[in-house]
Specification:
3 domains; 0% strand; elongated
């Protein structure tokens, strides 16, 4: 990471710039958080567009996000995941098939990361193999808790009992 000591000194020496820096950094952090991206002030300091916005007082707008995708790994991963999920859901069958082949070549952890970062969510209702009443579900859970078995075995038995 480059040293931004000049920028820090400039901001520290001016109440106006300090107020701008706080406002711009807070807005960028909040905007990133809405997308599930964790970014801090040190990360933002790497972005020329953010520093320019603070010094000039002009609105940064979209350019800081484009620069963040190029310079900050969290933004780059989120953009990659978004592009990948768009390709998977594409109306262009060739593009969607290529994306499906690409995902099958990846590890399960990478697939989960792409889905998480792409913002995909389970869209259907959660169903069980058996329709259990809340009382029946509670009895099965209590029985599994009292069984004193390993976590993997508990999960297996819960699935067999119709809990998912």
């Amino acid at each position: 990471m480059a040293d931004y000591e000049n920028f820090r000194n400039l901001v520290a020496g001016s109440e106006v710039l300090k107020a701008r820096w706080n406002a711009v950094a807070d807005a960028a952090i909040e905007s990133a958080a809405r997308e599930g991206i964790v970014v801090n002030r040190e990360d933002l300091m790497q972005l020329d567009s953010i520093r320019l916005n603070v010094i000039s007082g002009e609105e940064a707008g979209t350019p800081w996000r484009d620069e963040a995708e190029q310079k900050l790994p969290a933004f780059a991963q989120k953009a990659q995941s978004r592009r990948f999920m768009n390709a998977l859901n594409s109306a262009n069958e060739a593009e969607a098939e290529k994306a499906r082949a690409d995902i099958m070549a990846r590890s399960p952890q990478e697939r989960m990361r792409l889905a998480r970062e792409g913002g995909e969510a389970f869209s259907g209702p959660v169903t069980t193999k058996k329709d259990l009443s809340p009382e029946e579900r509670a009895k099965v859970i209590a029985k599994l808790d009292a069984a004193g078995i390993s976590g993997a075995e508990r999960i297996k038995r819960a699935r067999e009992a119709g809990l998912e």
